[in-house]
Write a structure and sequence with these properties.
The structure holds three protein chains of three kinds. Chain A is of the alpha+beta class. In chain A, 29% of the residues lie in helices and 23% in strands. In chain A, helix 4 links the parallel strand 4 (99-110) and strand 5. The chains are: A alpha+beta, B alpha/beta, C alpha+beta.
Chain lengths: 349, 387, 82
């Protein structure tokens, strides 16, 4: 019998489209995984082509986090769904003060999605992971019928190790603590909105999507025992993160509007659309609640890191049974920064 | 940001507020009504009331067109949107306004209605041009600021011979609403508003000019100061009002001279007159029927009038009986005096018009100011005089 | 329905459109409601339309009046201090 090896054509990454066979688990699936994902992510664990990744685990306390990414548009100024999926989950792990170890990535791809775009996303993920010093060691791919997905959805899961002695948790925030913000708010949300045609504005502003674990490591080093909690203000913005912590810890906040950095482009877009930058999403920023005597040292350490150049103390934790986030406006009066109600639709007035 | 930041300077505001306190004679109460959703929002967002002395109070009038749109008209809009051939285009502000039985445009969209949020009438026109098989209906609301853009859209549709574009017109006018507020008696027990003057609307006035307020000021002997949008403008206008009250004057003054003139925008007025005419009467949520207070599309543009095209007959829908919007819109009660405020009625679950728009008195108070209720630092002067 | 902001005209385009800019953010708006719009004008824009043009002299006058009122207030505040 003829034992010729079956010659398969390489994937057409120029004009090829993902079809249902790529998710069926057969030869086409294997080819897609091999030529797009394994080749981009390029690490030992993946190359073994097992259904799982095996690795040794250091002693200590581990954290795990998972998140689904459904951003639209898929490609935006400063990133794409892939880099976002890597940064986002690294950040969730990092908010526990943990050093990220490994990532897993699941893809749900819509039939008809351009292979070229898939490759672009995979390469972007590979590059984000490489920069962060972490590997995407296992994953999964499914394909759904046309009309049942938004191009592609990605879920990433990450694990990391918490340094000994560190126990960050929202309920540790207590009156007198300082609130530190790592940089300007609203950049990511505005970058996304600039690509939504119906909002009709142009800007060069980039998303701030970034992996924060390096900054976090410096922060833990500088002020570890004094840190109470860290949070990255993603959907719902700074306002939502503060309200969540206030509710969990049963405290209030007093924030100074003047101290919150907002880029001029973000301020302009928010004026145009009637939005409040405090509610606009961020993907490369964090807040930290720290014992007040340590805040100056913490801010100093953060400013020495490229992702913390504009770090600042923006307020303090106060006793408040009703858990209001109060803000002294730059104008001199007071207001609360309430929970986001509904979705932040661009206001006309 | 030029021409914005200069008008947001806190220290200057503090100093002007000190001057207000100086000139607002102690022992006298001053109560001023602002009549513009944008002012309601700015006052709450910047915490302007914190700067004022205790005897100068601000009261919110029916200046938010989202808030005064009656539930029956939203019912009509939802019915239109539920028709398979219709695409309803609307400003985002309207998506969560409660209609009859808790229905909203947002819920209708979830149920399959083709509803598209637009930023501008131009967007709606564009959709009509690019989707000739769909019937595009634009849900038009707003005071005189927003009416000229609707007029321009209808004129453009006429010029282009767009056969699939129409407007469901709910435009309302400012001076008749101010008159409705001031004319006693307003409530069955004869109670009426105690208002010493008006902070006149900012952007409505760029279109109308300041002239339309002259008759009102003279007839009701109340000063009107047209104020800009920025917080310093509002504080400055309050000083001007205090001065008029002290001097026993009731003039129409213009604080917003950088954008507002006496005669207003002639081109805009011409466009509005060309396309629209006065309705004899129109129901305002919270105010009831107000004569000569709203616009409809003229016969010459009937092809673009959704009411004619789709034979809309509005069925008035009553509000929740415990809802105090009617009194709050007239400045007779404060949000916290409504039983539903903060219990059943909140921005996520609005019961009435004052809560649905971020500029409604209740929504603004809830979102920015409700932390003051527990403090009760300043005893509010009675807003309402019994007959 | 009042949200409107003053914004600078960068270019005047055909068909009554202007390109306006604020802090590096650009947008196209209709100037069909105004006459003789020029580059460098500040326009008040609302729902994609320019409603009015800023009068820089009046703006300066307004700021001056505000400063005057503020100065009077500051004087009173200073006098009130023990």
């Amino acid at each position: 019998m003829n034992q010729q090896r079956l010659r398969t054509r390489r994937l057409d990454t120029r004009t090829g489209l993902v079809d249902l066979s790529h998710g069926a688990g057969g030869r086409a699936s294997a080819q897609l995984i091999r030529e797009i994902f394994v080749s981009a992510f390029d690490n030992q664990a993946l190359s073994r082509a097992d259904d799982q990744a095996a690795f040794d685990v250091p002693a200590g306390r581990m954290v795990m986090s998972t998140d689904g990414y459904v951003v639209s548009p898929l490609f935006f100024p400063g990133g794409d769904i892939g880099s976002l999926a890597v940064h986002g989950t690294i950040n969730d792990v990092a908010m526990a003060g943990a050093h990220p170890l490994h990532l897993a990535a699941g893809f749900i791809i819509e039939e008809g999605f351009a292979i070229a775009d898939l490759q672009r996303i995979a390469n972007s993920m590979a590059s984000a992971a490489r920069e962060a010093g972490i590997g995407i060691v296992t994953g999964d791919t499914k394909v759904v019928e046309r009309g049942h997905g938004d191009g592609v959805y990605i879920t990433t899961t990450g694990i990391g190790m918490v340094p000994q002695g560190l126990d960050l948790s929202a309920n540790r925030a207590s009156p007198g603590d300082h609130v530190v913000l790592s940089g300007s708010v609203g950049d990511h949300g505005v970058a996304i909105m600039s690509r939504r045609a119906n909002l009709g504005f142009e800007t060069e502003l980039l998303s701030d999507s970034a992996a924060l674990h390096g900054l976090v490591a410096d922060m833990v080093h500088a002020a570890g025992p004094a840190l109470r909690v860290m949070r990255d203000p993603t959907r719902g913005g700074l306002a939502s993160a503060l309200n969540e912590i206030a509710q969990t810890a049963g405290v209030g906040f007093l924030i100074e509007e003047q101290t919150i950095p907002v880029r001029p482009e973000v301020a302009a877009v928010c004026e145009l659309l009637g939005l409040d930058p405090l509610y606009v999403a961020n993907e490369g920023k964090l807040i930290a609640i720290v014992a007040r005597e340590w805040s100056a040292m913490l801010v100093s350490a953060m400013r020495a890191h490229p992702l913390g150049r504009d770090a600042a103390v923006i307020g303090e934790v106060i006793a408040d049974e009703q858990c209001f986030v109060q803000m002294a406006t730059s104008f001199g009066g007071g207001r609360i920064v309430d929970w986001l109600s509904g979705e932040q639709l661009p206001r006309i007035c | 940001m030029k021409h914005m930041d200069e008008y947001r300077r806190g220290p200057l505001a503090q100093n002007i507020a000190t001057q207000i306190a100086q000139e607002a004679a102690s022992g006298r109460q001053y109560q001023f009504m602002e009549f513009c959703g944008g002012h309601t929002h700015a006052i709450a967002r910047y915490g302007i009331e914190d700067l004022l002395p205790a005897n100068v109070q601000l009261v919110h009038g029916p200046g938010c067109p989202v808030c005064v749109l009656p539930a029956g008209r939203i019912d009509d809009a939802i019915k239109l949107a539920m028709r398979a051939e219709i695409t309803l285009c609307t400003y985002a502000d309207l998506m969560r306004v409660p209609a009859s039985g808790g229905a909203t445009l947002l819920r209708a969209s979830a149920a399959g209605a083709d509803i598209r949020m637009v930023y501008s009438t131009a967007d709606a026109l564009q959709i009509a041009e690019s989707e000739p098989d769909r019937e595009i209906v634009f849900l038009a609301i707003g005071f005189e600021t927003t009416t000229p853009p609707t007029a321009l859209a209808i004129r453009a549709a006429y010029r282009k011979g767009l056969g699939n574009f129409s407007v469901f017109c709910n435009h309302v006018l400012t001076p008749p609403a101010m008159r409705a507020i001031l004319s006693p008696p307003q409530l069955p027990d004869g109670a009426h508003i105690r208002v010493d003057g008006f902070i006149g609307p900012a952007h409505v006035s760029t279109i109308t000019g300041t002239r339309p307020y002259l008759g009102l000021a003279a007839e009701f002997r109340k000063p009107v100061v047209v104020a800009g949008f920025e917080p310093l403008d509002v504080v400055h206008a309050i000083l001007m009002l205090v001065r008029q009250v002290n001097e026993g004057r009731h003039d129409v003054a213009n604080q917003y001279t950088r954008f507002v003139t006496a005669t207003g925008n002639r081109i805009a007025q011409r466009e509005m007159a060309e396309v629209f005419e006065l309705r004899p009467s129109f129901e305002w949520r919270g105010l009831g029927e107000v004569p000569q207070s709203a616009l409809r599309i003229r016969r010459g543009y009937a092809a673009f009038d959704a009411e004619r095209r789709f034979a809309i007959t509005t069925i008035p829908a009553p509000d929740n009986p415990a809802c105090e919007c009617a009194t709050i819109l007239r400045g007779l009660k404060k949000p916290v005096e409504c039983k539903l405020f903060g219990t059943v009625c909140a921005p996520e679950t609005p019961m009435g018009s004052c809560m649905v728009s971020p500029e409604g008195a209740c929504a603004a108070h809830w979102t920015f100011g409700r932390f003051r209720d527990r403090a009760a630092m300043r005893k509010p002067a009675p807003a309402r005089l019994s007959a | 329905m009042c949200l409107a902001i003053p914004i600078l005209v960068e270019h005047v385009l055909p068909n009554a459109i202007a390109r306006v800019t604020l802090n590096g953010v650009s947008k196209h708006v209709s100037i069909a409601l105004l006459e003789d719009v020029e580059i460098g004008d500040y326009l008040l824009i609302h729902v994609g339309y320019a409603l009015a043009r800023l009068d820089p002299e009046e703006a300066a006058l307004t700021l001056a009046m505000m400063e005057e009122a503020g100065a009077a207030g500051a004087l009173h505040a200073a006098e009130a201090r023990p």
